[in-house]
Prior knowledge:
Blueprint: H1 2-18, H2 22-41, H3 69-74
Helix pairs in contact: 1-2
Amino acid sequence: MIPLLLLGAFVLGGCMVFGYSSFMVGFLLVVGGLLGLLVFMATPGAIRRPGETRTVLEERHYIGGRDDEHEYHHRR
């Protein structure tokens, strides 16, 4: 909802400065949409919520039995 309000304010302000015409409204909508798309693409990632401090770097799945190192160290 907020991005639509910002886009509307952008178009309204541009039309107040450059004059009202269907070309100007369309042009400002295209420019505002492209600017919003660029800002969205430049966003680094998901917003962290309170309590989310860990990051999963890599997740591995293995097929077969589990090989514990402890079994090998205790057998002599």
